[in-house]
Sequence to fold (125 residues):
Amino acid sequence: MRVYVAAKFEEAVRASRLMALLRIDGHRISYDWTVHTASASDAEIAAIAHLDIEGVRTADAIVVLYHPRLKGGLVEMGGALALGIRVVVVDADPADPCIFFRHPSIEHVESDEVVRGQLLFRGDA
Fold:
């Protein structure tokens, strides 16, 4: 299964760790945004944004690592919902005011380990 992992840039280490574990499970990562640095130029950021959306568009599923100040990940989640791509959100706050975390198509899991099992259970690796 091709997977895109969305998270706050500040959680790149966690996202990278999860991507490595998903690769061990036999999944392919549609785009690894964690290889970029915070010092990218405006032109580089524009290119990265395009690659992020392409990563979502070509994924079979996206995993969103919840954070109360998530921004870009919400755009990626919205793109996936619009395209009918499976969305799994990890550790969401049930009180978060963003209505899209309550979208009926979204699957919720409580940890990175659970998402690994969820993806193996519901998809081809």
